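Below is one such protein, fold included:
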Amino acid sequence: MSDRAKNGQFTRDNRFRLRPDGEPPPPDPDPARERLKTALAAVKEEEERLAALEQALERCTEEGRAARRAARDSAALLAEMRRTSPGDLAYAYANNSEVLERSHAVDVQRAAVARDQREIERLDEIESALSSEIRDAEMRLRLRRGAVRDATSQLICSSRQFHSLLDEIDRTQARLRGLRKAAAVISKEIGGLPRDAHGRVWQVWSLDPDTLEPVDPEPAAAWSRALAELAHDADALLPNGADK
């Protein structure tokens, strides 16, 4: 056998990868973890997009408030400029220069009012577009978070560690039944167990892990920690079955 074959470099199609002698080939990617990585990346991307849209909406809303305040001030000033007593109007007409100056100032202010109104309409249109896109982004984010839950479920339920947990449950139940059978054998041979021993052997405990009975919290805590890490890191390790 060649050195390359001994080193495990040959593959089934007679191709080989160059690597230092004795180094094992890289492990094949886990499809379940790759799917979770993709789903997590999609959620992160959508969360960032949604945050940017929400910040833009907040900025647009504030600019809209400022534009409305400016429009109110401009309209009030224009109304004030238009108010003229009959005597002032007569003398203004007698002095053509004053009439021209006043007319020009009113025209300038009228243009300012129109400009402020156009700005309000522009910001209203932008705010409506941002609100619509935020609703779409929120819907996409819900779907992508659902994809993360599905990918996490597939990863967990197909993992060796999860099946080890199920096996440990079966072994523990079998162990309990075996211990009770041993107690029954003893009871038969000695003509019955003492009252306190009989109660301890045959006492029925609830299988609800949240009841106030003796319970080992560590397996659940270990899986809770692993699931919390898995929510943002697809390479997070899983506990080995019921290990603490």
About this structure: The CA atoms of residues 53 and 133 lie 8 Å apart. The chain has a mean pLDDT of 81. The two ends are 45 Å apart (CA to CA).
